[in-house]
Amino acid sequence: MDALVVTGGRRLTGEVKASGAKNAALPIMAASILADEPLVLKGVPDLADIRTMGRLLGKLGVSVERKRGGTMVLASPSRSKRNRAPYEIMRTMRAGICVLGPLLARRGKAEVSLPGGCAIGDRPVDLHLKGLRALGARLEVEHGYIVGSCRRLRGGEMYLGGPFGSSVTGTANILMASVLADGTTVIDCAACEPEVQDLARVLEKMGARIAGIGSPRLVVEGVDRLGGCEHTVIPDRIEAGTFLVAGAATHGDVTVDGARWDDLFALVNTLREVGADVERQDGTIRISARHRLRSIDVTTLPFPGFPTDLQAQMMAALTTADGISVVTEKIFPDRFMHVAELGRMGARIRKQANAAVVHGTEHLSGAPVMASDLRASAALVIAALAARGTTTISRLYHLDRGYEHLEKKLRRLGAKVRRVNIKG
Ligand code: EPZ
Questions:
Q1: Which of 121, 133, 226, 420 gets the highest tally of CB atoms within 10 A of its CB?
Q2: Ligand 1 centre from 123 Cα, in Å?
Q3: Catalytic residue at 118?
Q4: Ligand 1 atom at shortest distance from the alpha carbon of 238
Q5: Phi, psi at residue 142, to the nearest 5°?
């Protein structure tokens, strides 16, 4: 099993480039099922989840060709009967659910395993099903699979608000289904996340007619067919944000190339409030933090609110801030797996329902810790970079799902990190 050994206490300085966004690339790859012609994607990160989605699409008859430099060519046969997304793949990656809408829209049949459990809490799919049913799909859950069929989907109206806001992959799924439906679809309370916007832009390039991109109300005029297109995936705002928080936590001076200001404004605002200087310069964001950070209250919300995918990293930075911070999670109320591990490094955090009260301490100390999910792992890396001494983070496969060339990028910023293989 791979582990990351981090010797902390060094200021991160220098420039790093954000990779293409995993959570944009995954649904866009699924959109290849909809097209009559190949989809050429650029800036696709080389990550475990991307490879898993490639395998899943392969099972569905899509040819997936990875070329050099992050380019991927996907081509779906027009009449394939391979409509089963098996549990063996789906249990490892939730984004696999994004093939459901395209399969129904283009092939009229789908058998998609319910995605696997996840360490960040309950992750139902009721909103996906509600939206697809509103388009006329017949859907049942049988033996752990969503079994669906339809003739041509027809436009419909739906409200996608759930108890914790909209659904990102739910919006993606329904949007992909609606573009080939007969008539007009209105998706109200649609997710506005940049990754959903990027998917909508790809669909437009393929010939879809979508109004309201980036707003909570998407209006789609269905078309009869979609063609291929070429598209460069947006930079990963969560990866970029992770480097910015790491810069703040180590009192460093870090410039992230490709970090999009508008996609990260909630984080920029938070980092400024804790005392860091954050500036925008020609497609980059630079953070410099000279002094101990101040405490702050952070609440996660759907975009453009503070992203849940940066909550753990921000909490890691706040463990050494001056004062008491309250971090409230409003998207995944149980997403606090990092709290106990940060505690092993000397952080003083008390969890209360969907919030964590963080008492800033002067410094953390390196310790052996275990990653539990992707962003919790990133939080441990940040804590380790800021801590005194050496931290060993095991179960590195979580990080490999979402951060391309992480050690290389951190080393470029002056961090002392190495990957080792340990038993267990
Ligand atoms: C996406 O997950 C991301 N994954 C997650 O990133 C991210 O944390 C999440 O959106 C929120 O931003 C991908 O894009 C592949 P949701 P998704 O459906 O779409 C509830 C990472 O670290 N809900 O928007 O699965 C749900 O329980 C990952 O990269 C329902 O109630 O999340 C949650 O409370 C982890 N019913 C809230 O909505 C549903 O049918 C938001 O979930 C669906 C969701």
A1: 226
A2: 7
A3: yes
A4: 29
A5: -135, 130
